[in-house]
């Protein structure tokens, strides 16, 4: 009981000393609170992730269409729109065709659109109203009649639309009868590799925040030690001054909690305006989980107190001064790699587990491994600076300062090292997981071609639309074709049949000579013999067929290897011109027009898409840059974008914390800097010494982070049995960002350095 009251009394005294320390004491308290506040703000964002994900998942579930028949409900015929990309903006759209007055409405839609009308999300409405959306407006010929409400969107930056059409096609053509929305059975299983990326991303991004909290509580160490020495002079024991120092740190942590809460609330006011990497959230969703808030409120002050006590362990405060600036004992290495080894052992225990991964072991392994990074840095920096001698005056000033106290700069950059190590590991996991789910890392560029797929269009209409596209200014040429299937009525073997004009065929394959009525065989697979009776059929479930005899003249056709065709036009099987089908009715096939543009300008692809708008859902335009993605790829992209966004936020936090710590270091050494300036050392030399003091630890921290990040990434990929893939471009980007942070922080500390080097700072209090 006596110990409890002693702790209570000494902590309270520390709080009073920190709060009543005058102007400079308040500045120290403000810097500590600001550093912790940045970290708390990020922790509150992390605590809001579950509610953000839950809100988006609930609205995504509400968007799921159910085809279960409901009595008394007129089905709404529903089909995905081919318009899924506009100049790099991802779009999600659907064609809708109500069959009666009781047809269900998608969530957030008050009125179903009529023919050619559209209901769009607010983000898409803004795009259509802007100059950038001028080429997109013709896709909605009858205009926008409504805006989708928030309950029908996953996020404020979602580009979603519903377009009405008076008729609909068959199930083969992608149409489905929808009787309700909010299909609770539409559960999308999370891919284990994507789950690994999400868990590791959350841990790797939030763990450095705790390092920043620990570092921020140790600001102004020299000034604190002088105050504690005065307390020893009036009779305080060594244990008492440790508890008093913990009280000072406790006040900074508590004030930092309030600062972090204020920063978080201010950020919530702008959250709906943020759209980074395709990630956005409604302000109503950014609500921290109460249990996690409780953990933050307890953990941050506790971490501040523990960090303060650990810092005092290496400092002997005596009544007549502080025994700290002498040569400290050399740091020992033997125990510092232990967390790294334990972390790797935990990850190895999950190797190959895939779907049976234990989240607790995974989180513990990553946290323990990353803990080794700030533990290794002080030892490595101490050993490095001992061997750095000579050089320019600014270099010698910086190195001598780090030789006297290598612990402080190591702590300063420890958080950045953890951020870089976690970020590099995440880049490796992103590359490996992206390859495993078949996700392209970037959108493919425009190829100078557009492919127009047509449905329910006659051969005559195909030629008419080809002529119309041929007249567009951006079009260099058009190649229409019809694709069907031919099969042997006896054996059932089949191959592809492509019907196209000689102009189209000669533009794609070196056939030599071609005239209307010719047929050609391409490829090494099964193909019918010249003069053989075959069956021509259309693709799909409801196949229509017609008998056809392969022309005798096919025998004289050149047999072309499958590798001869151009990569963008993989033609194979039977190629025939329209004249080969005279006197017979060809079944409806998959019709398409390959449009060759004059250049790869997106405006040309927009001209093509706008020209076939009158066909409605019967025309699908692919500009060669957008790709159809699976649910796994969508999951991966969502998690990847969230991780990249989190990496950016954490890196900004690292820069802000580094700036706060650098400013405080300059203030703490203002008397020494003033003495140097008064002795004739130019301010620019002092500025360069500050740069070296920031840059050298960051370079060492970057080297450690790259090595540990690559090792962690390799082990994480081993957990899910994926080949090791390193994203070197991501590594270069992260390390370059760290160097940019150093330059930015050094530039930002120059005003403080000029003030600190004034002669007035020589005055002793």
TrEMBL record:
Subcellular compartments: Cell membrane
Listed GO CC annotations: plasma membrane protein complex
A matching Pfam family: FtsX
Membrane-protein topology: Multi-pass membrane protein
Protein name from the UniProt record: ABC3 transporter permease C-terminal domain-containing protein
GO biological process assignments: lipoprotein localization to outer membrane
Location, primary (coarse class): membrane
Entries under PANTHER family matching the protein: LIPOPROTEIN-RELEASING SYSTEM TRANSMEMBRANE PROTEIN LOLE
Superkingdom classification of source: Bacteria
Residues annotated as transmembrane: 26-49, 193-214, 249-271, 291-312, 333-349, 361-381, 410-433, 642-663, 695-720, 726-750
Family affiliation: Belongs to the ABC-4 integral membrane protein family. LolC/E subfamily.
Keywords, alphabetical: Cell membrane, Membrane, Transmembrane, Transmembrane helix
InterPro entries: ABC3_permease_C, Lipoprotein-release_system
Organism expressing this protein natively: Kutzneria albida DSM 43870
